[in-house]
Structure formats: C-alpha cells, structure tokens
Specification:
By secondary structure, the chain is an alpha+beta fold. The protein has a single domain, classed as Aspartate Aminotransferase, domain 1. The chain is built from 3 helices and 6 strands; from the N terminus they run αββββαββα. Strands 1-2-3-4-6-5 form a 6-stranded antiparallel β-sheet. Helix 1 runs parallel beside helix 3. Pfam families: YjbR (PF04237). This is MmcQ protein. It comes from Candidatus Enterococcus wittei.
Length: 118
C-alpha cells in the first residue's frame, strides 16, 4: 500500500474526521478536516518539486500538516520536510510522501496536527 493510501486509511480511524475533495480544479487534492468544526488538519496533494525548492519539474505527492512552530523549525532541517506549500509557513509544514520519511513518522505528525486543530 502506498503512503498516501495509508495516510487516508489512518485518517478514517480518527474520531470526528472526514476526508473530502473540495477543489473542482484539483480533483486529486484531499482535505482532512474535523466534522464538528470544519478545521483542516491536513491537505494531500501532488505538486511539482520546483514549487518546494527542488531542482525538478517532476511531481511529488505530499501532505501539509499543522504543527507547533518550534517543531516545524526542527523538522525543516531534515530530509523530506519543506516550508508549507500554499499554507501559513509558521504553522504548517509540507511533508513529501516519497519514502524519504517513515510512514509511521508521517502518521504521528498527522495525529499531532489532528489534535492541534480539534
């Protein structure tokens, strides 16, 4: 199972969480949000690597997650983590889903984002 599918599957196990596709222009983008308050805690998408500062126009799947700014500061120093694409860069981070980060770590960050936004 690819990382994207594992992340979606895990999200479905979270209480009060739903996955939807709100963008007609981007039908593959998936938003993770709380049913009760509508707040987002994740955005799955695919963007060109050069939009993340990498030297390629190939696309890469990634997820934007809301995290504590101090944690974001630390994570951005590691491989596979980038300033949030299309989100507030102080409170969100982009994590690429290319296998450079263990799926378990991505799930842990997703859960942290879920709790921060509930």
């Amino acid at each position: 199972m690819v990382i994207r599918e594992k992340v979606i599957e895990y999200t479905h196990t979270l209480k009060d969480a739903k996955v939807d596709k709100p963008f007609k222009k981007f039908p593959d983008y998936e938003v993770f949000r709380h049913k009760s308050n509508g707040k987002w805690f994740g955005l799955l998408m695919s963007v060109e690597k050069n939009k993340l500062g990498l030297a390629s126009t190939d696309s890469v799947e990634n997820i934007d997650l809301k995290l504590d700014p101090e944690m974001i500061s630390i994570l951005k120093k590691g491989v596979g983590y980038f300033p949030a694409y299309h989100m507030n860069k102080n409170h969100w981070i982009t994590v690429i889903l290319d296998g450079s980060i263990e799926t378990e770590q991505i799930i842990n960050l997703l859960e942290e984002s879920y709790h921060l936004t509930s």
